Inverse folding.
């Protein structure tokens, strides 16, 4: 997984790309899994300037998904109760 500010972006074993903000988990995308239903992806990192999270699979194929940093920051502020910043 990868920390982006106060958000943690990660792949779980069920093949979902999730992020956690303040203990609340949101699914971003359902990923491909192997025949036994286990994910084949790992998080490489997040580039804020591109608003993208990069993943690699077991065959070393790289995929990316758009994750808006502004949305993560907004949700973090709301979870903290900081409605002025949100």
């Amino acid at each position: 997984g990868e920390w982006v500010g106060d958000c943690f972006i990660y792949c779980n074993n069920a093949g979902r790309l999730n992020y956690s903000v303040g203990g609340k988990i949101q699914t971003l995308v359902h990923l491909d899994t192997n025949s036994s239903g286990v994910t084949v992806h790992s998080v490489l990192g997040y580039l804020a300037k591109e608003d993208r999270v990069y993943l690699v699979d077991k065959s070393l194929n790289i995929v990316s998904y758009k994750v808006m940093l502004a949305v993560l920051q907004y949700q973090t502020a709301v979870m903290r109760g900081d409605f002025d910043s949100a």
In short: The first helix runs from residue 69 to 80. Helices lie at 69-80. The mean pLDDT is 86. The CA atoms of residues 41 and 77 lie 29 Å apart.
